[in-house]
Request: fold
Amino acid sequence: MSELSVDHLLGIKYLKPEDIQLIFETADHFKEVINRPIKKVPSLRDITIANLFFENSTRTRLSFELAEKRLSADVVNFSAASSSVKKGETLIDTVNNILSMKVDMVVMRHPNPGAGVFLSKHVDAKIVNAGDGAHEHPTQALLDSYSIRERLGEVAGKKVVIVGDILHSRVALSNIFALQLQGAEVMVCGPKTLLPKYIQQLGVKVETNLIKALEWCDVANMLRVQNERMEISYFPSTREYTQQFGLTKKIVDSLNKEIVIMHPGPINRGVEITSDVADSEQAIILDQVENGVAVRMAVIYLLASKIKR
Ligand code: CP
Reply:
């Protein structure tokens, strides 16, 4: 397979296993490029990309911008907080105004699930979903799987538990789809109130005991509790959440095997994971961030190769 089966990256659920394989093989090449003294290739000198962030972001926004610049694309950045969206402009009008300045690709983070799909039906540009509400965060799942592949050799056959606020997590949903496409087994673990009722229908195991989940897995992906998406209390207190679902050095040391520990960031140190675990050799959290640039270069490069020019 030499090109993606999709014209946009809207969610992992639209991808085939071969798409993921192609993205990873392309990312392997770009990872080598970004470790050279000159970390740039001229591949996308004729492409202009707009990064539209309607929600806060540190890692994803910087990672996309670096990926685009390392491919030599022209880049424009848009932040909703300082834009005319505040004056009542619609999403379509905002994007069409940006596109009339000859933009070829839009990377968008938006609080509404499905915003990327909506945009792809109304504007003539390649769309990359950088997180749409509690729905999908496809490039995060791709860089997570890429990092597992790097640490453990392959994703197929591995047991991965996703721990925490599954209910509000786009990272969880995209990871479930991505891991299953690659032949991994997936478990979710968290308080019952933060596990969606339908979750078993996705073919995942469900566990509410953190120790049992960790004893089962090869990889634990620890998620942040997304207080900003909660209108009610889903557990009695942060202290109680941490007592039941926080990953500590004592717990990690009590396991009879070494597991790989992941976190998509931002971390709430001392809540879902303690600092000594987050900064340990078993944690690949900063590898995930590094790999994010190579994986996003691969996604952008492969989508750009489908632009007629
Ligand atoms: N992992 C992630 O999406 O982080 P940001 O919200 O900082 O982009």
User: Anything to note?
Assistant: The chain is about 40% helix and 15% strand. The pocket of phosphoric acid mono(formamide)ester is lined by residues 57-60, 131, 137, 140, 264-266 (CB under 6 Å). The domain at 138-288 is CATH 3.40.50.1370 (Rossmann fold). The chain has two domains: 12-136+291-304, 138-288.
